[in-house]
Structure formats: structure tokens, C-alpha cells
Amino acid sequence: MQDIDVIADPASAAAALDPVRARLLAELREPASASALASRLGVPRQRVNYHLRLLEKHGLVEVAGTRAWGGLTERQLVASAAGYVVSPEALGAAAGGPRTVGDRLSAAYVVALAARVVAEVGGMARHAVRGRKRLPVYGLDAAVRFRSPADRAAFAEELTAAVGGLVSKYHDETAPDGRWQRLLVAVHPVPKGVDPGAPEAAGASKMTDAPDTPDTPDAAEGGEAP
After folding, report:
1. Which of 34, 74, 179, 195 is deepest in the core (most CB within 10 A)?
2. Residue 204: pLDDT over 90
3. Are the C-beta atoms of residues 84 and 72 closer than 8 Å to each other?
4. CA–CA distances in Å: residue 191 to residues 135, 185, 188, 196, 201
5. What angle do helix axes 45-57 and 10-17 make, rounded to 10 degrees?
6. What is the pLDDT of residues 99-152, one digit of tens each?
7. Are 39 and 48 contacting, i.e. CB atoms less than 8 angstroms apart?
8. d(Cα 201, Cα 11) in Å, to the nearest integer?
């Protein structure tokens, strides 16, 4: 089972977004039968079977095993991932991106950047999983509480300078074996009622070497496997 699966196909996204099917995917983080799911959800078994067939058709649910019960063979099903994210690719031409937003200080621009990360990394990650390879990525998540708007502005200015300095230091336009990487930094308020997490940058994942992973977005499933 994958940790996160990015859904790019419009039909698969529609299947997963149905309220009953979304609940089934959550329940199927652990293997279960249709009868067990029907009991948990309070939904007739025939209806559960209908939803499970659709999820299985789109590769969101798979058979984990079988069990003999009451003279019958009952299938145990499990979700293909512990969690799902719908990619902007599922919206086709209607999907938004950074190029459609002019104001870089707007919330729309930050959302568009995040959407691009989902689309680009999600496409390459699907191929990495199939090829049993690790994608060379790095994630950093931190929380900070500012005393005042002035401190926030000063932080943004220092952060911009620090990132600019690192980019200048390590960027090499002419390196024959160089690989383009995207660097995204965003600062935004934490919604009320949401736990901001630890105040230190403890959520980083180690970048690993995968020299044959594609550098370009792989939104279309037909790209080269990493």
C-alpha cells in the first residue's frame, strides 16, 4: 500500500470523491469484506458491492485475500493507498497554475504553486512506485509564530535573501550532467483550529539519488518511467 496516491484521471477522481466511496476508502486502510463494510457504514451490502466494484475498476481498491465463510468464499479488499490527493490534471484545461496568476503576493498564487507541485511530483511519483525507485525530493515543514507584522515582513526579507544566496551558490547553467530542480517556499497563516505542529523544521525528508528519474513533469502516464 502506498502512503499517498495522487489521482490524475478525471473518472478516478469522480469515483473517489463520492461521499460513500470516500468513506469506503478510509475504512479500507485495513483489509475488510463487503459484508463487514456494510455493517460499519449501515449501508446494504448490494450497495457496498456496487461502490467497491467502481473503486476496483479505477485501481483504488484491490484484493488483499480471500476467506471461507458460511460455505462461501469472501473477498478481503484493501485501498491502494493510505491517503489520496486529487491532482489538478483531473480538471484538464480548467486546472489553474502559477502562470494564470499575476500577483505573487496573493493567496491564489500560493495555491497555484502547491497545485503545480501535486501535478508534477504526483506524475513522477506514480512511475517511481512502479519502477520501485525513489524520487529525489526534499520536503521541509516548519511553524513560526511572529510577534508582529513587522517581524513577519523582516522574516520574509531575510528568507528571500537566504534562498537567493543559496540558489546563486549552487546553480550551474552549464553543468553537463546537471538536473533542474524546483524550489518552492511559501509562508501562510495556519487556519484556526488546525494544529501548527512543532516550531522547528523537523519534517524534512532526505533527498536520495535517482539518476534516471525524469526531470520534467510527467502528467501524462505515457512518459518515461523513472
Report:
1. 34
2. no
3. no
4. 30, 18, 9, 9, 19
5. 150
6. 888 788 889 999 999 999 999 888 888 778 777 888 888 888 899 999 999 999
7. no
8. 37
Residues 5 and 15: their CA atoms lie apart, in Å, by 14
CA dihedral 198, 160, 137, 182 (to 10 degrees): 150
Find all residues with CB under 8 Å of 201, minimum gap 6, and list them: 140, 141, 142
pTM: 0.73
- The rounded distance, in Å, linking the Cα atoms of 167 and 183 is 9
Rg over alpha carbons for the chain, rounded to the nearest Å, is: 22
Phi and psi based region of residue 5 (left: phi greater than 0; alpha: psi -120 to 50; beta: remaining): beta
Q: Are 118 and 182 spatial neighbours (Cβ–Cβ below 8 Å)?
A: no
- Tell me the helices (H) and strands (E) count for the chain, helix number first: 6, 4
Q: Alpha-carbon distance 81 to 2, whole Å?
A: 4
What's the rounded Cα separation, in Å, for the pair 73 and 68?
A: 4
What DSSP character marks residue 99? Answer: G
**DSSP 8-state class, residue 80:** S
What is the Cα–Cα distance from 216 to 127, expressed in whole angstroms? 13
